[in-house]
Request: fold
Amino acid sequence: MAEPLSVTLHATRRAGEMLGKRVLVTGCGPIGTLSILAARRAGAAEIVAADLSARALGFARAVGADRTIDLSEDRDGLAGFSANKGYFDVLYECSGAQPALVAGIQALAPRGVVVQLGLGGEMSLPMMAITAKELDLRGSFRFHEEFAVAVRLMQGGLIDVKPLITHTLPLSQAIEAFGIASDKGQSMKTQIAFG
Reply:
């Protein structure tokens, strides 16, 4: 879990000051849910998570999202946050889906920060909204020094990733573990125990 947590710690560093911020996370797979943990640890005051999967949103709630929005039931579930020029200070876009990015940008307040983590291919951007709101668009892909920080945070109990580990199998069942891990309807994170 140190590697994906490191990715989200790096994204949080890229987002800038987090203390007291209102955060939107779009896409609640492993990276999205770990982004919730990283943002909260960095001082985010409010975190809203949006996804198309009720199961994924359950994990978002388990790790501390203040509110979840099931976009499969309400495609316009983020529209209310667009009123008065937007609500959120930071968007962690973890789905890689253009509709999530566009809806998230509409929900950002002026001078908000978009951190793009999701990898879904090329996307068109609403440049007028980005320009008029003076938004910062920041890509986040790599990490380095955050890996050691991730390990220390987990070891010290400061970030609890256990709610995301849905399966633990022994090394002798590694092939089965990879099969489970590839089925997102069954697994959030699957780990292999080496002892």
Notes: The mean pLDDT is 95.
